[in-house]
Amino acid sequence: MSKTTISEASALDNEETGSLYETARQQFSRAATVMELDDSVRSILEQPKNEVIVNFPVRMDDGRHLMFRGYRIQHNNILGPYKGGMRYHPDVNLDEVKALAAWMTFKSALAGIPFGGGKGGISCRPWELSSEEQMRLTRRFTHSLGTNIGPDYDIPAPDVGTNAQHMVWMMDTYLNSVNAHDRNRGRAVVTGKTLTCGGSEGRDKATGQGVCFAVEFWAQARGLTVSNLTIAIQGFGNVGCFAARIASAMGAKVVAIQDHTGAVANPSGIDVEALKAHSDKTGGLGGFDAADDIDAEAFWATECDAMIPAAIENQLTSARARRLQTKVVVEGANGPTTIRAEQVLKERDIEIIPDILANGGGVIVSFFEWIQNRNCERWEVKLIDRRLRRMMMRSWALVTEAAEQHDCDSRTAAYIVALQRLQDAYAERGIFP
Ligand code: GLU
Fold it and tell me: How many domains does the chain have?
């Protein structure tokens, strides 16, 4: 076999991590073919319903005005209002947001919650913006979106680069544009808010918590318990950090963690709380004395039972998939595995718990927050955890059943459960006119 040259290899990499929407489309298409999805439903779901792009000025602290571009892609709302996060990251672009919006449609449908799918964001470097600049950016973006969002229409949430504070700014800006009598109920325009401003208990940890439930179900199905597992996690933001904390509280050994600042490993288990304190203090993972600094690429070869990519998309490439020494990949991030990497995992008999199942905890607890806002209720975290676990267990069982019935991989099975619900809704409602 001839050797691949460096330029050929980088062309392959580019091709592999090229269009994220193409990745989503291929995953969708595979499942649609296996389940023989109705052709009309297939063509409807192949593209988003609405693509909103807004350009707007924001005043910087030095008095200059810079133009920013914001997106809100509304993929589908047959099952309920568009729902999904707002991402602040330099890589945000139309193709990426379209893929993320489509995944939200399938994630909500799989979870069985009455939401559709949407996603948005701004291409920016939030870490270079002051808090005041981020506030003006968020308020101006929300204002530009106008009636494209609403508690019964399209409901944003946090995602990469945004948090509860951004959601509160969004809510406040939106509420200032509605009639005073609609302001209480209008709080449900976004989820993932602070507790003081109408957020839900357990929403901050929800995605990480759900990832750990998925690991627990996977272990149970193999006669194992989480407390016997070793885990490696890529990402130490909201999802990765909570997954690490909760997994170690459940007794698992977190043996390696990587983020954009570096990677650390300790085969006897990392003290996650101490690492978090170190990272908050120093701004990175490196130099933590209770673990070894390791090479970012060596991280992927960590020997472990479960590898959890919990950062951003396209991190698990085919080259990295070949180096993995794990039994299962649990997708905490959206779209972390490329199509080629998935092929490698299949060849190597490494299982995948797909993103739309594994990271559904975030949107499920967003649903709980939305209900609490509408009913003026406050649920305790114990109740939230119990309901989240039950809903995820139900999805897990349906995915397992679909995989057996259609003799297919877990991602295809998860899509089939979601697509079946979407297809049923179209069949019952009919396609207008
Ligand atoms: N951004 C999260 C996700 O990708 C949460 C979305 C939500 O809560 O609406 O699933």
Answer: 2
